Each structure stands twice: as structure tokens, then as C-alpha cells.
Structures
1.
Amino acid sequence: MPADLLGWAATAVLIATLSRQIYKQHQAGSVEAVSTWLFVGQMTASVLFIAYSALMGSTVFVVTNTLILITAVVGQILAIRRRRRHS
């Protein structure tokens, strides 16, 4: 099994897991448990890992970290909207 297939499989599992968690948090209707710092840290780390992965020439990790960054942004937007509705 080529190594990249393992990386793509891990990407699929990770993104599915993160997407499900964002959906679950959004459906719960509570923003108290959603940490802004978690999203800030996740977004910062993702940007740094994207740069690192690009420098290392790893397409799998560039794509994975870009998708993780997108999930962080979507999660943050949903949390901000929820906070505005409840304030």
C-alpha cells in the first residue's frame, strides 16, 4: 500500500470527525463550551503546518491542513453567529 494512500485515508477520517463535531456543536445550540482560543490556535497551527508541508513538498499534508483550517473557520463563524443570536 503506497504511503500516500495512508495519508489520504487519515485525512478522510480526520475531516469527517471534525465536520461531525462542528455539526454536533452547532445543533446543540450552546456556545459556552466552544472556546475561541481553540479555534484561534487551530487556525494558526493550520496556517503554519500548510507552510511547512508546502516547503517539505507534501501534498497530502497541504490538503489536510487546508481542510482543517476550513473546518476551524466554519466552526468559528457558526459560533460567532450563535453568540450574536443569544446576546
2.
Amino acid sequence: MAEIEARVGARGFSSFVDTAAERYLALLKAQEIVEDFERRNGPVPAEETDAAERAWRGEQPDTCRPATPA
């Protein structure tokens, strides 16, 4: 708690906590979506998980690389 106040000030604490709670709820909902998908379709293939992780990091997917000059 003290670290949050040190970063955002006492007046920003409530806003920080509200934002953190919203993000956490969004992550929980996303996890529920993945779990539902896997119940219906089986595990997500590793190559799809890898592509999603690359996209999360802002990396271009292999299929979107610019063409190399001939």
C-alpha cells in the first residue's frame, strides 16, 4: 500500500486500485474464455500460443514479415 501511495500520491490511490481491479477482472474473463474454448475444442495448439505471446510482446507474426528484395 505504501509503495502505491509513493508512486501515485494519496489522492491517486483510489483510482490506481480501481484501474487495477478492472484489469484483473478483464484477465479473469479472458481466462474463462480460454478455458471454455479448451473445454469445447481441446488444448490451444502450441504454435497458436506462441503466436499470441509474440503479438502480446508487439512482435510481428511470421506471416506478416516484409518481403525480402530479390
